[in-house]
Structures are given as C-alpha cells and as structure tokens.
Task: structure prediction
Amino acid sequence: MIAFKGRTYTCPIDVTFSFINGKWKVLILSHLYRYKKRSYSEIRDNLPRISEKMLSQQLKEMEADELIVKKTISSKPYRVEYALAKNGKAFSPIMEFASKWGIRYLKANGIDYLKDQELYK
Amino acid sequence: MIAFKGRTYTCPIDVTFSFINGKWKVLILSHLYRYKKRSYSEIRDNLPRISEKMLSQQLKEMEADELIVKKTISSKPYRVEYALAKNGKAFSPIMEFASKWGIRYLKANGIDYLKDQELYK
DNA sequence: CAGCATCCTCTAGGATACTG
DNA sequence: CAGTATCCTAGAGGATGCTG
Result:
C-alpha cells in the first residue's frame, strides 16, 4: 500500500488512474488531445450526454491536478480556452493506444469507424 | 456517436475504456499481468479493500468480455486460477505505461516506490 | 458564453452472513 | 477455497434554472 496525500493506493497504476478515473475525464482529455484548444461549449457539445455540473466539475479537478490549463482569452464577451497541460500531455500514449485499440475492436465487430467516421458526428 | 450492442459511445477511446472502467478492473488486470496466474484469494488479498461482491462481479464481467480466463485446476479441494486472456493481454501497454507514469509521479512527489517497495506490501 | 447552485435519483459498491 | 445472497448507504452523476 502507498500512502499519499491522505489516500491509500494499491500500486503505482492505482496512482496513475486516480487522475483519470471518473466517467468523463478520459474523454475530455482525448478531445483536447485531438483539438488542442477548445472552448467550454465546444467540449460540452462534443460530449452530448454530459451535464453542465459534471463538465465544470471535471474540468476543475483536472485543472487542479494540472492535467489541463484554462486560459481566459477575452473578458467581454467572456471567452475561455482549455488545453492540455504538461501532465495531461503525458497521457497521450494512453489516448493513442486506446484509440487504436477501440478502432480495431470495432472493426473486428463489424464497425469501420475510420471509413464511416462522418456517420458518427 | 457510435452505436454498439445497445450502448452509445462518443469515440473509440470511449469503447476501449468501457472495458476497464470500474474501480477495480485495472488493478485486477495489472495484478494478473504481473503474476500471470492467480487464485481468487490471492487476488483478493492483494486488493485489501475490495469486497467479495465486487471481486467476483468484476471477475465475471471481465471473463464475459474475454479479458481474463478462469480455469478450474482441482475440484476437491476446489481451486481455480485466473489469468489474462488474449484481449486482456492486449491492454499490457497501458499497464506498463501507467505503472511507469505512477512511479515517476510518486518520485517527483518524494516517494521512491522502487527503492521502498518492501514497505508497500 | 461560461459557468454555479440546488435538488434529486439511482446505482456502484460495501458489510455481512451463508454455501458447496 | 471460492464464491452467493441480501440488504443498505454514500456519493457519483443528472435535471433544471439562474447569473455575470
């Protein structure tokens, strides 16, 4: 067991996944990984079933964990921009891998994601 | 959106993580990744805070998803053995990566997991 | 546009006891 | 040893309306 910041972890893998557990974090990270800079509403609209509460909550947690950075790019009208921070970029290999794995799995199950991508918007 | 087996997914990454979401799956997989073959109680004892219910439930789901295989190695006394199946082994790169990431993160925060490993049993 | 504040639901997950 | 079967609760997550 590893004791760290008031929590206990089974192993380093446990530590790593504690950053990206939660229903939406991986999806937000992968979205930012793909699009580099995105506004609040762009992220929301890409994740059709996320609630405002969840979105802002997860964004905040990930900002606190320094996985992402938020930048105010204009104050009137108020506009912001989210992007991966260094720690967040460090997860890119997982995104890459999970993406390829998913595409391969779908293909093995009769769905050609790459070919039919425009259908899945 | 991707419709598949009665669920909808945002993207292939969503598909991939649907297999390993849940509080314990990654930890069980990484444990099997490390030890190859493990009995029910060996897995349980390595995950001190897991409940019997969760353990058997997650094992079953992962067996159904063909991430792991269960083998009865003796019927009296009843003994079983869990191991990674092909699909489960396919996640090894994520385990490897997450393990290294966690170790590096811990080190950056003053915990030398490798050096002090015997403390974390 | 980019959120917060509330209130509410529901189910993931835990505790405990029991079985072949 | 390797699990089931119940019962129960905390808190993850959703719906909705409001604000600077």
